[in-house]
Amino acid sequence: MLSEIVQLADIDAKEKTFVINATERDCAELAARLRIPSLADVQAKLVLKRAGKHLIKLSGTLSCEAVQECVVTLEPVKTVIDTEFDITFSEEEQELAEDMVMPDLALEPVEDGVIDLGEIVAQQISIALPDYPRAEGVAFEGHIEAPEALLPPEQRTSRPFATLLQVAQQQQNNQNDKDGE
Q: Which structural domain, as residue segments, surrounds residue 167?
């Protein structure tokens, strides 16, 4: 599996660059994990540096080719991913609580003083993949969304269990009539 463990004790204010080139086996395992047909040419360049006593900044670029299934036809759809990302890690729980003061700075926790850069790459691929891939020129036709389905249950005129409720009430009334005789 794609893995590149970095000890945070080795990271200081000077930038350290890591390059990840996934093997065919890494790509196949990651594709299986992401439940997509295939993944190829996974390359990442990650730069780590300390940004405070307990903060570590990661800046990265990622590129790869993914094949997903079209949500309409199930045909293969090729997606080229080329993205940049930034993540800030905190080695201290106290600094995670300070996230409330700076809501636009999301801090990721660090476990056991290490970061797995391979896992970061896997997560970034997952984030970058289209949620609903479609083959070129394919439209999703034949499906009509019933506006009533968007209403709260008490406002709907069509109630699938209304008939069942009527039958149950009728049976209860029949039972009460028999008991009253």
A: 149-175
Q: Is residue 144 part of a domain?
A: no
In a shared domain, residues 153 and 124? no
DSSP code for 69: E
Q: What per-residue confidence (pLDDT) applies to 99?
A: 45
Element (H, E) at 42: strand 38-50
> CB-side exposure of 44: number of CA atoms within 13 Å?
29
Number of compact structural domains in the chain = 2
pLDDT of residue 30: 95
The pTM of the full predicted model, rounded to 2 decimals, is 0.70
* 115 and 157 inside one domain: no
Q: What does the alpha-carbon distance between residue 66 and residue 132 come to, in Å, rounded to a whole number? A: 13
Strand partners, 61: 45, 84
121 touches 2 (CB < 8 A)? yes
Nearby residues of 116 by Cβ (< 8 Å), 6 or more positions away: 3, 4, 5, 6
Q: Is residue 119 one of the residues assigned to a domain?
A: yes
The verdict on 123 and 154 lying in the same domain is no
How many other β-carbons are positioned within 10 Å of the β-carbon of residue 143?
Answer: 6
State whether 85 and 41 are in the same domain: yes
Q: How far is 35 from 102, CA to CA, in rounded Å?
A: 35
Per-residue pLDDT at 12? 83
